[in-house]
Design goal:
334 residues; alpha/beta; oxidoreductase activity; eight-stranded mixed beta sheet; transmembrane helix; Rossmann fold; transmembrane
Length: 334
Amino acid sequence: MVSSSVIYAAVPISLAVALGLIRHWRSRNWAKCLSNSCLKGKTYLITGANSGIGLETARALVKRKARVIFACRDLAKAKEVAVAMREEEKCGELVPMYLDLASLESIEKFVEVVKVGFYKIDCLINNAGVVVPLAKDEKTKDGFEIHLGVNHLGHFYLTNLLIDLLKKASPSRVVMVSSTLHEHGKLNFNDLNLRAEIEAAKKGKKDRHNPGYCNSKLMNMYFAKSLAAKLQDNCVDVNACCPGFCYTNLFRNFVKWYHYILLAPMALLFMRSAKQGSETVVFCATDYGIEGQTGKFYRDCAEYTSKYNFTKEEEEKLWEVSEAMIKARKPLQN
């Protein structure tokens, strides 16, 4: 007769095995980047490369012998990560550099240093991003709403300042890490700083999807489309991608300790690891099969058709307003 202690031990083991099989079954649909080309001699610049998807993207590029510039706000952590990665991979080159996308001045200083140290940039990966509860009413150093300022304007300004280095490396690439959450975005050009939504959030109104984050991801999409059109004759491919729903520290401002327990089943079935999330980013940055294709949106290493109704009028308006906001160094007055 089987003892009760054996039964008690068998139940959690069986459960763990079952959950592992379910996880494995789910992850079969998550694509992997099959390109393993040697990238020796190529320079990649990644924003937010010291953690999460950016870190795993950098690791994949270093394994392929690329030179990778870690553009990070936390320089100490970037250096620490770079040291550890050098010991692990034994190949490639890692260059940690300070960049604060919440400061236009920091972006300008960063680009000055890059232009002194590097002749060309083969691929710019705009990966860094923030998600903050609107009720906190956080702003950048230049006074922009934090999602608008960091996720969109910061990368918009950085990319435009680096265009000459991208042209020198042609055929080169720009990869915009966006999200399918852009489909929930809605641009109000009279209130891009979301004052109305922020005031409502302060009064307790809750949105299922953070308007600031969704709008910034929509702006990423529009920026990629606009830039692709502007650079199509310069052999600079510009594409956007969605890494999927990933388990990273991006949503740390929203998650409490008890959420880890409540969300465990969903995390098991739907959330990817940072490495799994990086696969499509690496694909867009390295796969030679898509060279010459520009203005596309990718998910699971394949082209994805967005449900958002993009318009040329909205695209052009966003570019014009973005330039004006950066030039004015202050948010639009609402």
